[in-house]
Amino acid sequence: MSRPRQEQDPPGHTAEMRPEPRDSMEGYEGRGLLKDRRALITGGDSGIGRAVAVAFAKEGADVAIAYLEEHEDAERTAELVEAERRQCALLPGDLGSAEHCAEVVDQTVRTLGGLDLLVNNLAMQRPLERPEEITDEQWTRTFEVNMHSYFRVTAAALSHLSDGDAIVNTSSVNGLRGNKHLIDYSATKGAIIAWTYSMAQALAPRGIRINCVAPGPVWTPLIPSTYSADHVETFGESQPLGRPAEPDELAPSYVFLAANRLSSYYTGEVIAALGGETMPG
User: Which listed residue (150, 185, 227, 254) is catalytic?
Assistant: First the structure.
């Protein structure tokens, strides 16, 4: 089903989207799977990050969400988390900065009293028609935000994580099969997968699990703020299910990977939620 033609300036805002994404986990009933756990979610203001924050809260976790400057979206996420009687710390700033990556971990620990779960979810993209259009500045910025923030936030978090704690990374279908219009973005998403595999081996002796979710098309503010109105109108229709995912449909995968009761033997895994698309190998 086609969506209304629409565009926004980056980084995009949920309230301006038509239709608005399903990202509040309405009707989801928690079972205490993450009771009294403390989670940091980067890119937690909207989209997948918002749905994960709310799902974690419904499962009993307190959360901190790191985001750039989308204050209205972040405040709405905090409202949804606090409605579940859980704490939500808002941490604005540029995670493309190494210093800020360390700061959000410190702020999370101070505010929540510790850190047990990390969700690296932040991402940016800028579609281009030809490889020659990718500037050195864009290439570097995409890696700073999409890959280096994962490495840096995790590096700062490791001294606070211990046996039984978990990390969940967000990759993309584009990290599995590439995308000729998102070359730099796809490169970062592929790097996240390889980094997840390697970190799982390195962290296994410590009892810290690290896994990855690699979604196909998802209806989030990233889409109307980076694609043309023509592209937005038919976004996700090429998938076998004929539509993009809603953030609410992906958040349970993050709960699964974060909850030891469900996934204690899972580490170094990639859950590819692709709406029926299959990958060779």
Answer: 185
